[in-house]
Amino acid sequence: MAAETDGPTSSHRSVMGEPTTDGRFGDFGGRFVPETLVAACEELEAAFREAWADPAFVAEFETILRDYGGRPSPLTECRNLSSQLGVRLLVKREDLNHTGSHKINNVIGQALLAQRMGKTRLVAETGAGQHGVATATAAALLGMECKVYMGAVDVDRQALNVFRMRLLGSEVESVQSGSRTLKDAVNEALRDWVATVENTHYCLGSVMGPHPYPWMVRTFHHILGDEAAAQCKDLTGGDPDVVVACVGGGSNAAGIFSGFADGDARLVGVEPAGGAAVGRGVPGVVHGMTSYLMQDEVGQVMEAESISAGLDYPGVGPEHAYLAAIGRAEYPSVTDDEVVEAFTLMSRAEGIIPALECAHALAWIVRAAPEIQGQTVLMNLSGRGDKDVDQMMDVLGMHGIVS
Amino acid sequence: MSAAEASTRRDSFGALETHLRARRESGAKLLVPYVTGGYQGWQRAVEAAAAAGADAIEIGVPFSDPVMDGPVIQQASTAALADGATPASVLEEARELDTGVPHAVMTYYNLCHHQGHERFASALLDAGVCAAILPDLPYVEAGSWLEAAAETGLEAILLAAPTTPEHRLADLCGASRGFVYAVGLLGVTGERTALARTATEIAARCLAVTDRPVLTGVGIGSPSQAVEACEVSDGVIIGSAVVRTLMSDGPEAVGELVASYRTALDHG
Ligand SMILES: Cc1ncc(COP(=O)(O)O)c(C=O)c1O
């Protein structure tokens, strides 16, 4: 008798397997979009299944990520921080990818898929601007039209990335509605897609949104988890004790977790205190999915507040809600102050300026260090901090740390 | 359910559908204005719209993330929320209305999900509202909501879009209660300079598979566009034009606007 499978290549049911046919990870996920978009999501799912089963598609994806994106990204043993913290700290260097973060993996996958589906235009939301820059880059590479929606607040604090996107030939629209951050940029991108679905693909930037996005985006990021697992094995002979990543929507965390979810490593997703969807949220439905969501007592979605634009999101990908619900992963949160400290710590101790997003992961490691002494800790360094230096010049100058 | 039971159920229409069917039978084209609940003067706007010949009223319960709404209704929702509007306060005010026509609520699914399907449906009925439209809850995800609404006695209106595949359309129209909301174009709410070709196409596709009233909404911004849509459709929903008028010229102007649509539909 055939074993229960979750995909063409695995013979056992993975903790991070394929969602159910209605797009559920446990109680989370689904396809809560306007009727206008239901057919588009169905077509996207069919196209993704077909493409991912086509070796030529996968080969093209992997080739572009290698020759253009710079994969595989290295694994760096951080000796200085290791001795300071009393743990063995390994970091997966997604900051060294082309465009400076893990986002390129997903974007190359989706842009190739969109092209295969005959779409000529991409729309995207962006918070920190990293996903927007990655999407603009893929659009330039593949000759597609591109429009990026970005909250007005983020346009101000990530001016460099706005310029980058425009330089790459994309249109950037500053979103003035709601809290003027990432959640509103998602709304505006969805509104665009509702009107342009015939020729446009919505290149969603994290493991969120309606089915198949959470699953598809995670699948495009598997490569980083698979690489990290192999690199850890080479270096240490096995899996790390703890795997740590920051969580906004949760794509870099999903990518790295997927390399270890079926093993014994402790999985830690670190949220910002002001956007702790798993920590402080209750189940809700927005942006196409059921997941944990920060909302007020009647169900209005709350505004997240974080120093890091890329984590300023009141929800979280449904698979993370599921991993939290079944106890496979934990989702603590750290404060902006802890993040600022971690940001400077990594810069000075290792000569690596991390993105503020992944500084959250380090902030948790610093806090947890006394309890995990001697353990091997793998951290996903999801992006480089160049985009944040302008903002941090103000923050650190104010605190008199760097002036 | 036996076939006989199913057909009795099908025949026992709710208050909204009964009213709309009767109006349609009398030869009228159906006119349903939308007003954002909680926006300053909204109750008077609803009363003025009803007095001007609306067949039913759609009351918007403002939500933080109105993904199917364009700038005009977004602006009204944001203003209403800033004024402290909540689902409870809007329903409380809705209960005070005496318009003589059925009321439907239009809002987003999270407000329903958060309260729980049954409690949400009961709260609407308690406020004299007989139907609900949840534009971000598509038919494929609506199963348990449709059941809860049916059990409570609330009419759950479903939306059909130009992109709805043929294989789903008949089931969708069959499962809708009150009327079928035919989304007139690919896009969010807002007035357009011309009626989209898709407006009459989707209405015709719905009418081919259901005898339920089919109303076209999204993108109808003038009386002449309403008349054009009603060459096929049973009626129209007028949203942004009404809300824009409420915001710029106040509730009495809404009465005049609705009267202009009524006249056009009756004589156009
Ligand atoms: C470097 C970096 N890390 C993490 C994130 C957060 O996204 P996710 O939670 O999907 O990994 C962002 C988003 O902008 C980012 O730029």
Describe this structure in words.
The complex is a heterodimer of chains A (403) and B (268). With 403 residues, chain A is α/β, with parallel strands linked by helices. Chain A has 15 helices and 15 strands. In chain A, strands 3, 4, 9, 10, 13, 14 and 15 form a 7-stranded mixed β-sheet that branches. Chain B has 268 residues and is an alpha/beta fold. Helices cover 50% and strands 13% of the residues of chain B. Chain B is built from 13 helices and 8 strands. In chain B, helix 9 links the parallel strand 5 and strand 6. In chain B, 57% of the residues are buried. The interface between A and B is large, with 37 and 40 residues. The site of pyridoxal-5'-phosphate (PLP) has 20 residues of chain A, from helix 5, helix 10 and helix 14.
Shape-level CATH architecture of the largest domain in chain A: 3-Layer(aba) Sandwich
Report strand % of chain A: 15-25%
CATH topology of chain B: TIM Barrel
CATH architecture of chain B: Alpha-Beta Barrel
Query: How many DSSP-defined strands of chain B?
Result: 8
Total helices of chain A: the number is: 15
Instruction: Characterize the quaternary organization of these chains.
Output: heterodimer
How much β-strand is present in the residues of chain B?
A: 5-15%
CATH class of the largest domain in chain A: Alpha Beta
Q: Give the overall average pLDDT of chain B.
A: 95
Spans of at least 5 consecutive residues with low confidence of chain B: 1-8
Q: H/E order of the elements of chain B? A: HHEHEHHEHHEHEHEHEHEHH
Question: How many domains in all of chain B?
Answer: 1
What shape does the CA trace of chain B take? Answer: globular
CATH superfamily of chain B: Aldolase class I
**Rg estimate of chain A, integer Å:** 19 Å
Distance from first to last alpha carbon of chain A: 68 Å
Assign the structural class of chain A, choosing from mainly alpha, mainly beta, alpha/beta, alpha+beta, or little secondary structure: alpha/beta
Q: Residue share in helices of chain A?
A: 40-55%
